[in-house]
Amino acid sequence: MKNPQLHKARANWTFFMAFVRKEFHHIFRDRTSILILLVMPILMLVLFGYALNTEVKNSKIAVYDPSRDVVTRAMVEKLQINNYFMLKKVLNNASEAEKAFQSGEVSMVIVFSENFYENLLHGGYAQIQLLADGSDPNTASIITTYATTILSSYQMELMKTGKIPYLITPEIKLLYNPSMVAAYNFVPGVMGMILLLICAMMTSVSITREKERGTMEVLLVSPMKPLYVILSKAVPYFFLSLVNLATILIISYFIMHVPIAGSLFWLLVISLVYIFVCLSLGLLISTVVETQMAAMIISAMGLMMPVMLMSGMMFPIENMPVYVRWISEIIPARWYIEAIRKLMIKGLGFSAIIQELSVLVGMGIVLIAISLRKFKIRLE
Amino acid sequence: MSKRDPILMPDNTVILAKDLTKMYGDFTAVDHISFEIKKGEIFGFLGANGAGKTTAMRMLCGLSKSTSGQAWVAGYDINRQSEYIKRRIGYMSQKFALYEDLEVWENIRMYAGIYGVPDREIAPRTDELLHRLGFESEKKTLVKSLPLGWKQKLSFSVAIFHNPSIVFLDEPTGGVDPATRRQFWELIYQAADRGITVFVTTHYMDEAEYCDRVSIMVDGRIDALDSPGNLKKAFNAKNMDEVFHQLARGARRKA
Amino acid sequence: MIQMPAVKADSIFKKYKKVQALNGVSLEVGEGEIFGIIGPDGAGKSTLFRILTTLILADEGKATVNGFDVVKEYRSIRECVGYMPGRFSLYQDLTVEENLTFFATVFRTTIEENYELIKDIYVQIEPFKTRRAGALSGGMKQKLALCCALIHKPTVLFLDEPTTGVDPVSRKEFWGMLKRLKKQGIAILVSTPYMDEASLCDRIALIQNGQFLKTDTPQNIVREFGTVLWSVRSNQMSKLLIDLRNYEAVDTCFAFGDTHHITFKNVPPLEQDLNEYLQSLGHKSLFIKPIEANVEDCFMRLSGKTLQS
């Protein structure tokens, strides 16, 4: 008999390899696992590499320049030729600035004081003000930094050639979120995510659980209209969503000091619409999958991930390539989060959220219609 | 005596249990059962659901430790040498434990590898097994496409591929048609003829008749243990079904 | 007046992917009749039940329950049938009482309204009424599931493998309960893989590979076995099986518990010859005698025939 140690080691090795081989088989013969293991990493690389980045380009800006002198004009020119900024509007007076923000036309307004160059030369009052939309603190801080850098480096050049005596550091003022509280940014995002999670994922899981257990069969063979069975599943999650909505608002307002500057009424209205959309999504998912696992995976991959990445929560939408922006347009959460920002932080009213509201209502109707059509009164 | 040596068992006994007991908290799942099983015997382990059959079987397979009492399987102590037991036995579960997304021959090779069959023997013995079962044409078929009866036969053959001394079968014939059931028992007979001891649980009372001896578990105890012929005489019954009913009627563990 | 059969199916065909699950199945069940569908797993029993309870659509063929068409008038059917699918389909995390109340409500009735019907069964599980369904034994779950299916006083009861995985004692009790229900005029369609339960039905259909091998009362099926069945025993059963199979005149030979059942080929059987042949091979305590076939013998004979054809 050969060396027994060697023999035992060999046996263990055979045993081990048998298992390894089997595991490879399982992976390659299951479409879902191939999707996750091979396709997803590539997708994520492409997304993060190209589509999503925190650089902000082509931000729309407006300028209010009462001086209109050589230096101010040159500064505006410098900002423009840069591909970070796009001059959208020239304002005629200071009050137009507020309006420009509210309408969402611009992300930043540059304001020069009167008689800028003259005052600068003779030691008078000369100031540059950068007004940015603080409801999106990430973007605001990025673009104000860009602007400051551009303006400062231009001024340095002028100083070298003696054209100006000293630098003016722009004063940065954030509208709506003066202290740049990060919570302002993520609270709307979190609201969108949580409602989506509760309504879409949990509803679809609950319905498919019934199918998996076999009790759905018994319920179908009863006078109960199948639709009522489904609706009865949606109702508890609807109420739970309302509870969660209230909780988030209370905590954000009282503890994190996120303002509810705008109309609370419209906040609730649009939240209800959004909840309805999410419930319809949950219903739709449950009509296409058979198992709870599948419902959860689709909810996580197909809903949560796009929401996190493409709804504007983490990465600015303006910056995404066109095709990614289109995708973000069909994500309900994107519209909801935008509307919440406007209502809560910018303090705007109904008129500002008309677009978002109609989009969400439209989505809700379409989703419910599709789900009802796909809904089966039978098992297959 | 080192840990890995088996004890010497009296004349041809392959399984020996003495007051084997398993308790879960206050609940006695297996209540001091004792028996001896000889090599090549077909031993039927009967009892209602919840009587303790599965728990007892798991202990004998080395899958769970006893609370008290002792048992030796193939000479190894079930509590202290369970790893060695696992190499000497085969096990066929109710669900057949075959990988549905692997082909027939892949399943055989995998289990052969697990049971430590030497590499160079696997291929020829696989072919021989497929030939014996008449499965040659299905060598590369995915198991999930096989009819139930074939899965059952394959599962059994895989369980004895490595020539274990004992094979444990947990309700192996559930739901298949009568002809297939009988063919399966013929496979069991062939295995017993080769000297493999067969320990089988079943719900079908007529299958109890195919066994050399049977034991009937009620409420965790073994209330009867003998050959089917002797049991029928003792209980004045026409068939094993009647024997079972007489014993089971007194069972308390109904809920 | 012609009695409307409680359940009627006409040439049902159903295909799942590549498998023909049902291959032209027809049956009729009358009021107060216990009709058994007997066959192994995969024979098509569940598929047939799902079609009759309006859960899936047949590819071809028609079926009615209480006169209502399963396709067009499914809503009416769903109001008056009781359905117990395999695995009992109870809510594991609800108690016995909660399950029963729920199903009563689903059928727009209350437990009290039809209590008489389920009383005999319910009293057996009543002591456990606050226990979660998931914690019950197989036999108890079965009784609860039956109560839930009866709670609305259905006229037709569909029971898909209600005794599978349940201990033999509970199985017997269950059939006793069905016999009592039958007296109430409820038509009961029950499927089972256990051949010995066939004799407890009024009429049965033997099913294999999506086809009915034969439909009739168990007594008639047995009577029409087609040939004489013999029981053979010796002191070496395992060897006997092989020796019998090698005997030229023997047609089929199957193990049946403590005896072997054989049939002879067309030649009129001479048990003397068989006796001598076996004795010469060393068998002792020989016992050869004609017996009455049971349903399992018939099933094997019929399914063997269809394999050949």
Quick structural overview:
The complex is a heterotrimer of chains A (380), B (255) and C (309). Chain A is an alpha/beta fold. Chain A has helices at 4-28, 31-51, 70-81, 95-102, 116-122, 137-160, 183-213, 215-220, 226-255, 264-288, 292-310, 322-329, 332-345, 354-374, and strands at 59-64, 85-91, 108-112, 128-133, 171-175.
What does it look like?
The complex is a heterotrimer of chains A (380), B (255) and C (309). With 380 residues, chain A is of the alpha/beta class. Helices cover 66% and strands 8% of the residues of chain A. Chain A has a five-stranded mixed β-sheet with strand order 2-1-3-4-5, sandwiched between helices. Chain A is flat. Chain A starts with a helix and ends in a 6-residue tail after the last helix. With 255 residues, chain B is of the alpha/beta class. Chain B has nine helices and ten strands. In chain B, the strands form two sheets. A six-stranded mixed β-sheet of chain B has the order 6-7-8-3-9-10, with helices on both faces. In chain B, strand 1 (13-24) and strand 2 (27-38) form a beta hairpin. In chain B, helix 3 (104-114) packs across helix 4. The longest helix of chain B is centred in the C-terminal third of the chain and has 16 residues, at 178-193. Chain B is globular. Chain C is an alpha/beta fold and 309 residues long. Chain C has a six-stranded mixed β-sheet with strand order 6-7-8-3-9-10, with helices on both faces. In chain C, strands 2-1-4-5 form a four-stranded antiparallel β-sheet, covered by helices on one side. In chain C, strand 4 (60-65) and strand 5 form a beta hairpin. In chain C, helix 3 packs parallel to helix 5 (138-150) and helix 4 packs antiparallel against helix 5. In chain C, 48% of the residues are buried. Classes of the chains: A alpha/beta (380), B alpha/beta (255), C alpha/beta (309). The interface between B and C is large, with 37 and 37 residues.
